[in-house]
Amino acid sequence: MAIDVLAGKVSAGGRLSANEALELYLEAPTHLLGRLAHDARGRKHRDRTVTYIIDRNVNYTNVCVARCSFCAFYRPVGSADGYVLGFDEVFRKIEETIELGGGQLLLQGGHNPDLPIEWYEDLFRGVKARYPGFKLHALSSPEVLHISRLSQVTVPEVIRRLVEAGLDSIPGGGAEILVDRVRKLLHCYSKASSDEWLDVMRHAHRAGLRTTATMMYGSVETPAERIEHMMRLRELQDETGGFTAFIAWSYQPDHTELRGVEATGLEYLRTLAVARLVLDNIDNLQASWVTQGGKVGQLSLSYGANDMGSVMIEENVVRAAGAAYCMDEVEIVRNIEDAGYVPRRRNMHYEILGEPVFRERTIPRLLELATARAEGDSSVPVELVNYPARSPAERERRHAS
Ligand code: SF4
Prior knowledge:
binds iron/sulfur cluster
């Protein structure tokens, strides 16, 4: 079909098939894709508001048995660089987040065989007992699946127990590309197949949780597989309506087993624009400034994004693979306003919380994102002895100490 016919279909609110989306993705001029995506965004968000959230990305452990080939963050079981955060460390991070105006942790980590479901329940209960209004946006689909397998509890039961302990919503991490050929090449099929990733989200939505959805593109997948990924998300969203947002980011190759090169900024903008056109049932698209930098992040607002993501405060995963961008609230607001939009703080449900915090009270500037732990800190949390160690390496470490 001619590109102008497809453009007309999209402009009239028509739904793209996979083949039509692929044709647009491969053939449409970038400025046309941008205009179509910007118009689609405008049909969903009629005012000039661009939202963002103040939260903190906390990675509770880097010990992981999944060993995805694109990941530079994980450490094998028994590694001297492996860590698990103590409950007190997490509480301290929450207090720092509240001081900066934040109200949520994005809590994710490796698939650690020595953390049974009770560890998560105790942590969540501890958080909610100390900070009742604070939100836990925690544990991606593959982590839920890992807990289910490790603790021999069904996925719906894991979700029920974690919600009871304080889980508020589930982040869309671990989706990578929802095509099993790609997942096998990336060594992430065994942590969760495409169907399994989607099924955890389905259970979460049925349990009344809202979640996000992500895509890591630019590794080994074809353009058609990127579109297939979007189609699978669109199908589930038709069924459940549980996704609040979609976030695409480019594979970061440094220090990974897979290596390769990073996709360019133009490829990011084209991918984002096509996602806005395909995902006609997901309201919010975030700009991934953490992988693209502030300048491309700002441009994203003209390519379909209506949200600048998170102030973040802390980041460990993308940084390990070579990207170390930092924007605090002042900088995010400056980028939004400079692009001609009105910045508003939001929560995970995209409810507006208000004006930028720094205009209401003095908060410290954040010129570098924090890390999980200070360099050289290899402390082991005291409460870990309350949970049975499953890995021989951890049993040996405990015996020695
Ligand atoms: S991406 Fe997640 S699951 Fe995969 S190796 Fe890294 S920490 Fe583990």
